[in-house]
Design brief:
Blueprint (H helix, E strand, L loop, with lengths): L1 E2 L3 H6 L8 E5 L5 E5 L4 E9 L2 E9 L5 H16 L25 H11 L5 H13 L2
Parallel strand pairs: 1-2
Antiparallel strand pairs: 2-3, 3-4, 4-5
Length: 136
């Protein structure tokens, strides 16, 4: 069924009792909403260079409709360029190899804690100091 996908329409569509229903978007050719028994997903259903591509874009509760359309457009462009469907979609995520270690040590965290907790009793501080100094 071909309809203009809107947030209101997506929210109003009920889950199916059996099988799946596909709602093709009028705005972006090849973009669709697939509704199953337990999920609603944005999908890509596009024939490019004679080959049919059916790929999941994202679940509806994880992404907005506008973001899903943009992601689907990127996916279609990747296919037309001969690249993998999902290439370039996750480039803005940090590379764990280049990530600097910003995690404080236990001693640094404890020193910060003591500096911010002004009203601690002397016995509490002594107990905490003993516990921290026993750790390897």
């Amino acid at each position: 069924m071909k309809v203009k996908l809107t947030k209101k329409l997506i929210d109003s569509v009920d889950y199916t009792a059996k099988g799946t229903e596909i709602y093709m978007d009028d705005v972006l050719t090849g973009f669709a909403l697939r509704v199953g028994k337990q999920s609603k997903r944005y999908t890509l259903h596009k024939r490019i260079n004679g080959k049919l591509y059916r790929d999941e874009v994202e679940e509806t509760h994880l992404i907005t409709l506008t973001e899903a359309r943009e992601k689907a457009s990127i996916m279609m462009a990747n296919i037309k360029k001969g690249m993998h469907v999902y290439d370039g979609l996750h480039e803005n995520l940090e590379d764990p190899k280049n990530k600097t270690n910003n995690v404080p040590t236990l001693q640094e965290a404890y020193d910060y804690f003591k500096s911010t907790k002004i009203g601690l009793a002397e016995g509490t501080i002594t107990t905490y100091d003993r516990q921290i100094s026993c750790l390897p």
